[in-house]
Recover the amino acids of this structure.
């Protein structure tokens, strides 16, 4: 091979190798560049992920701090809520606790003696009081509300009395009301109740005796119908009834009293009246001063509650709130729960929730209302009337007894 040819061959070979080497170098360079970019992208991605995770963590921490701060403000009363909203929130928690307690203590329920008894007075709102109180999760009442145990079933024994009442757990109150307890036989009714249930609490709902007598008359006539001779059904009008019984009652009281006689000294006389003439009790039931001292002698203010029935009719919510305090119950029935029925204006119960605050001018849904029977409030509806002269005669008759009752209980009811 010629020298020049050999030299050319050497250069040719080297060029070929150089091309391969250069190509390999480029491949390595591209691979290195790819690895570098991959790492950079990975670091950026990891950085972004970590940044997002840190942001989420910070948000959660901030939320937890806010929640804890809000909880603290709620517990400490510092949160900016209206007084009503705070009241409803507190009630909501109490209701949840009480319902949970009742659920957990179903097995501990048993028939017990009542812790609360309504003594009357008939036609003054005793049914309304016990019915509205029964919406409390710690109050249980029997069907029909009345047992008449101390009136005519005492001989059956206290175990029989327990069986007349619904079963209750340790915290619940069994309650009944029998309006004739206050002023009907037996004369020793206060002693019977005190000896049988020493720690019982008593409710006495009173109202204007004149309006009460008229309401009682209408109740008896509707109940027994006109054709029935029982009680007062034979008297066509309230005026006829008053003419028949008021003079007789006035003569009796005049014959019983002396200048030194307190009306309460005549309790036995008034208690005995129904035995001979039940119809006269429509009048005597309103002479509260003849009986109240017999009850006060055994039950003090912590166990005997006098309730203004006329006030209850106009503002049941406030009275029910006060009664929960008297009975030692958690206050979960609020005055906001009581609204007037659109059809007749009588108050009904409807649970007022926190959510209702968000609805302005919410109309009353009659389906939500829990009302007393439609037969209640007959005389207040204006369907029945009595002459002004007859009503004034009764007011004059009751006036001195009312004044004595005001002094006995330390309350002025301002009955006409």
């Amino acid at each position: 091979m010629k020298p020049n040819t050999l030299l050319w061959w050497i250069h040719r070979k080297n060029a070929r190798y150089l091309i391969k080497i250069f190509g390999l170098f480029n491949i390595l360079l591209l691979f290195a560049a790819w690895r570098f970019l991959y790492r950079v992208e990975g670091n950026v991605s990891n950085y972004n992920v970590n940044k997002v995770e840190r942001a989420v963590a910070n948000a959660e921490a901030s939320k937890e701090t806010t929640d804890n701060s809000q909880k603290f403000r709620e517990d400490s009363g510092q949160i900016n809520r209206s007084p009503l909203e705070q009241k409803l929130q507190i009630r909501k928690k109490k209701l949840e606790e009480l319902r949970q307690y009742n659920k957990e203590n179903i097995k501990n329920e048993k028939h017990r003696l009542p812790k609360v008894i309504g003594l009357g007075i008939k036609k003054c709102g005793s049914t309304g009081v016990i019915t509205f109180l029964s919406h409390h999760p710690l109050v249980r009442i029997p069907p029909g509300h009345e047992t008449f145990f101390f009136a005519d079933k005492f001989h059956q024994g206290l175990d029989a009395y327990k069986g007349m009442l619904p079963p209750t757990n340790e915290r619940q109150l069994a309650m009944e009301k029998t309006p004739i307890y206050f002023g009907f036989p037996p004369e020793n009714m206060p002693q019977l109740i005190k000896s049988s249930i020493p720690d019982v609490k008593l409710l006495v709902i009173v109202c204007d005796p004149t309006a009460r007598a008229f309401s009682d008359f209408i109740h008896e006539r509707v109940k027994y119908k006109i054709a029935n001779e029982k009680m007062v059904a034979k008297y066509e009008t309230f005026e006829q009834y008053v003419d028949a019984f008021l003079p007789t009652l006035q003569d009796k009281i005049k014959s019983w009293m002396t200048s030194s006689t307190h009306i309460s000294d005549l309790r036995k006389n008034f208690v005995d009246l129904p035995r001979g003439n039940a119809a006269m009790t429509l009048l005597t039931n309103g002479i509260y001063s003849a009986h109240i001292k017999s009850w006060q002698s055994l039950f003090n203010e912590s166990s005997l509650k006098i309730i203004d029935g006329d006030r209850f009719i106009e503002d049941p919510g406030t009275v029910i709130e006060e009664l929960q305090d008297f009975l030692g119950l958690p206050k979960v029935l609020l005055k906001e729960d009581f609204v007037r029925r659109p059809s007749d204006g009588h108050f009904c119960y409807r649970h007022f929730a926190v959510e209702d605050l968000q609805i302005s001018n919410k109309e009353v849904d009659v389906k939500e209302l829990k009302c007393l029977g439609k037969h209640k409030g007959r005389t207040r509806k204006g369907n029945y009337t009595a002459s002004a002269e007859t009503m004034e005669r009764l007011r004059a008759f009751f006036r001195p007894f009312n004044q004595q009752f005001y002094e006995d209980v330390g309350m002025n009811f301002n009955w006409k």
Remarks:
- The first strand starts at residue 116 and ends at 120.
- The chain has two domains: 78-207+300-378, 212-285+386-409.
- Residues 213 and 283 are 6 Å apart (CA to CA).
- The radius of gyration is 41 Å.
